[in-house]
Amino acid sequence: MPRPKLHPTEAQRLTVKSLAACGIRQEAIAAKIGIRSPKTLRKYYRQELTSGVTEANYQVAKSLYDKAIEGDTYAAQFWLRCRAGWRDRSAYEPQAAPPPPFVVAKDDGVQQP
User: For the chain, what is the domain count?
Assistant: First the structure.
C-alpha cells in the first residue's frame, strides 16, 4: 500500500527554511518534520531549502558590509580579503628591481664634430 501524499503546511515550510538557513543537514531536517527521506524533502520543499540558505548568506553578508562601511576595520579587512582578493603578507617581500631606463638615441643622419 502506497504512503499517503504529503501536504506541506506553512509551519513546516517555515521550519524547513529556518533550519536550512542555519546549515542543518537535509537528513536532520527531514527527521525534524517527520519525513524519512531527504529525497522527499527536496521534492516538496525545494524552494524553502534553496531560499533559506540564500537569504541567510545575504543577511550575514549585508551585516558584515554594514559594519565595514561604519568603520569596523576588522570587518573591512575580512570583506576585502574574501571579496576583493586582498591577502596578508607574512613578511617583507622584496620587489623585483625596476629595469634600467631604456634610452633611444635619435639618428638624424647628422655627424657630430
Answer: 1
Which pLDDT tens digit goes with each residue over 82-101? 888 888 777 776 777 777 77
Query: Helices marked H in 1-113 — which ranges?
Result: 10-21, 26-32, 38-70, 73-83
Distance CA 98, CA 94 (A): 12
Domain assignment present for 63: yes
Residue 89 belongs to a domain? no
Report the pLDDT value the prediction gives residue 109, as an integer from 0 to 100: 65
Residue 90 lies in a domain: no
Q: Which residues contact 50 (CB under 8 A, 6 or more apart)?
A: 20
Burial of 32 (0-12, 13-18, 19+ CB in 10 A): middle
- pTM: predicted TM-score of the whole model, two decimal places: 0.66
Residue 36 neighbours by CB under 8 Å, 6+ apart:
30
